[in-house]
User: Fold this.
Amino acid sequence: MKFTTTILLLLPLLLLDGCITYEDNPECSKYKYITFEELEQLEVKVEAPKEIQKSGKIVIYNQLLLINEVGKGIHIVDNQDKTNPIKKVFLNIPGNLNFTLKDGYIYADSYKNLFTIDIRDLENIQVVKKITNIFDYNQYFWDWECSYDTSNGIVVEVEQ
Assistant:
């Protein structure tokens, strides 16, 4: 009998947890959205090397290490001298979670899009193909604290 009473007392609390809305949580106002039209316009940017904040997958290609920065892009590191790796470039790929590499071409996701990037010449990195809307967007993968309506766009970051 006590178990049933405890469950009945806790049930409203569990139900209320799922009822917290955007308006109820001021943290939700810090979410930055982009529209699906803006999402289709996202491009890969070749940038100067930067510090790795949250690493993901690591792939070895010849003497290079390709290190995924979860949600941000790919670091390319020259690992010819294993005692002194040299950061060469950062590929800024918004929303990048995963990538693969074949014959000098990176295949990288960017939210709902897929990029093919030629890295055979690090001095002349080129995006050779972009396919838009190839992936379903899963808002829950990103572990956002608030739920939101995806009909107008997606959350891309939380402002600090």
In short: Residues 31-158 form one domain. The longest strand covers residues 55-61. Residues 112 and 135 are 4 Å apart (CA to CA). The chain has a mean pLDDT of 82.
